[in-house]
Amino acid sequence: MNIxxxxxxxxxxxxxxxxxxxxIKDLGIEAEVNKVEDMAAIISYGVMSTPTLVIDExxxxxxxxxxxxxxxEIIKQSMPQ
Length: 81
Hints:
Layout: E1 2-6, H1 11-27, E2 32-36, H2 39-43, E3 52-55, E4 58-62, H3 68-78
Parallel strand pairs: 1-2
Antiparallel strand pairs: 1-3, 3-4
Helix pairs in contact: 1-3
């Protein structure tokens, strides 16, 4: 699983990264987590606000930071069956 956090380095982007890493740890799964701060790369996903959560190249959440329970739910729903 590849998870990207799109954002220009704002505090909410840092919060999202923390929540993602905690959710992955609690789920006991392996995932590559990358921060994308390049504006051209962010725009290429068609999003207009950050932070944005991208899992396996699919935009899952835009403009808000969910709590850990919600993040775990989003990640579980995105796992291959």
